[in-house]
Design a protein that fits this description.
The relative contact order is 0.16. This protein has 102 residues and is mostly helical. Strands 1-2 form a two-stranded parallel sheet.
């Protein structure tokens, strides 16, 4: 997997990766929401089984555990405002470093 990633990205690595974590059940429920279906935003992944969602989550969790210095796990099961606050906190050190470099 690491070799495929290296080839696909040309060896470039992001400074920070945000992983928006949801249980498989909640992720699938959001993908199947009425508003998503009606707006035409649903895609083939939204139609996948619960087992698929669980495998995807497991894979991303493994990546985050393998590179804790790069990944920040954001619990996105809460309200949008809480997720936004978690994102701001996860990026605060990079934003501050960028501002100091100017």
């Amino acid at each position: 997997m690491a070799e495929v990633d290296r080839l696909a990205t040309g060896g470039r690595r992001p400074d920070r990766t945000l992983y928006f974590d949801l249980t498989a059940e909640l992720a699938r429920k959001r993908g199947h929401s009425g508003s998503r279906q009606q707006s035409g935003r649903a895609d083939r992944l939204d139609a996948e089984s619960l087992a698929f969602y669980a495998r995807v989550r497991s894979g991303y969790r493994a990546l985050a555990e393998a590179e804790p210095e790069r990944f920040r796990v954001i619990d996105s099961s809460a309200a949008k405002e809480a997720t936004e606050a978690a994102v701001r906190a996860a990026l605060a050190d990079l934003v501050a470093a960028s501002a100091e470099a100017r």
